[in-house]
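In the previous chapter we treated chains in isolation. Here, by contrast, the input contains two separate entities that must be folded as one system, with a combined length of 227 residues.
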Amino acid sequence: GAGVSQSPSNKVTEKGKDVELRCDPISGHTALYWYRQSLGQGLEFLIYFQGNSAPDKSGLPSDRFSAERTGGSVSTLTIQRTQQEDSAVYLCASSSRQGANTEAFFGQGTRLTVV
Amino acid sequence: AQSVTQLDSQVPVFEEAPVELRCNYSSSVSVYLFWYVQYPNQGLQLLLKYLSGSTLVKGINGFEAEFNKSQTSFHLRKPSVHISDTAEYFCASTRGSYIPTFGRGTSLIVHP
């Protein structure tokens, strides 16, 4: 596709349920990032994938959060036993190569509401 | 660890007035700096970036930013704003790590 695609765009779930958020990066992009955006908090880094390397999971807030990237392309962020504080917009981004000077391309995000 | 500070959470301005959105970074070594814009209900898109060379960087939509190493700043400016510039603006940095660190964002509100 032309850009980073995320689904669903909105998700309302009950506290305690598991949710899966999907990200389709730009074709050919080897780097993929997940961020969480809460009101007034900016973007909080969650996890980073680069090619076939082990992901950098240093930003995951708890063991209820996990992510995988299959075939070096599509990524799924899973939140188990959701809590109200998990409510936020989850943003996925990809970039064409590994490098600190590389621009990240963002999807429109998934707005998660835990009720 | 690197960090980025955006000093203003909200900046109101009248249409056609100039604007400056402030960003300071913490790093004593080489750093790459970015400004992204987020329009309502959209993802972030790149406005401009500083990698090296000229300290004045020009971006899209008439925005520019100046890298100031001595003040560790990378402020974003536009000489004349439009209503359509109303959005959230994020400053970001990378250094060594490939993972961009973002500031908390500045909401630019342009009034007619």
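The two ends of chain B are 41 Å apart (CA to CA). Chain B touches chain A at residues 6, 9, 32, 34, 36, 41-46, 49, 51, 90, 94-105 (CB under 8 Å). Compare these points with the single-chain example from earlier in the chapter.
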